[in-house]
Amino acid sequence: MSDAERVSIGGLKIAKILYDFVVHDAVPGTGIEASAFWQGLDRVVHDFAPRNRALLQKRDALQAKIDDWYRGRRGRPFDVAAHRAFLTEIG
User: Fold this and answer.
1) What is the pLDDT at residue 4?
2) In terms of C-beta density within 10 A (0-12 exposed, 13-18 middle, 19 or more buried), how is residue 84 classed?
3) pLDDT of residue 81
């Protein structure tokens, strides 16, 4: 999506279609100002971004271990006990 299809709000770049939906359809009648909604979303996104990045890195590391484990056992019968032990070991 190009920057032309996005709206800059605080530190966020929002897809224009989402921006239009929130401003014109979702927020009216709720008693919440669109600017307050975007400020809150900006705060939440930026507060949780570092933790989210760390969790995604952990997920990638776990997936790599799982992929390696299965590659190393290709062609062997499935061993439930070994599988459970491996998953317990990696967390």
Assistant:
1) 74
2) exposed
3) 97
pLDDT for 7 equals 95
Q: End-to-end alpha-carbon separation of the chain, Å?
A: 37
Kindly state the helix (H) or strand (E) to which residue 6 belongs, with its residue range.
Answer: strand 6-9
Q: How crowded is residue 38: how many other Cβ atoms within 10 Å of its Cβ?
A: 19
H-helix or E-strand containing 67? helix 34-72
- Predicted local confidence at residue 60, as pLDDT: 98
Residue 14, judged by CB atoms within 10 A of its CB (0-12, 13-18, 19+), counts as: buried
**CB within 8 Å of 68: residues ≥ 6 apart:** none
Q: Is 30 left (phi over 0), alpha (psi -120 to 50) or beta?
A: alpha
Q: What values do phi and psi take at 9, rounded to 5? A: -130, 115
Low-confidence spans in the chain with pLDDT less than 70: 1-3
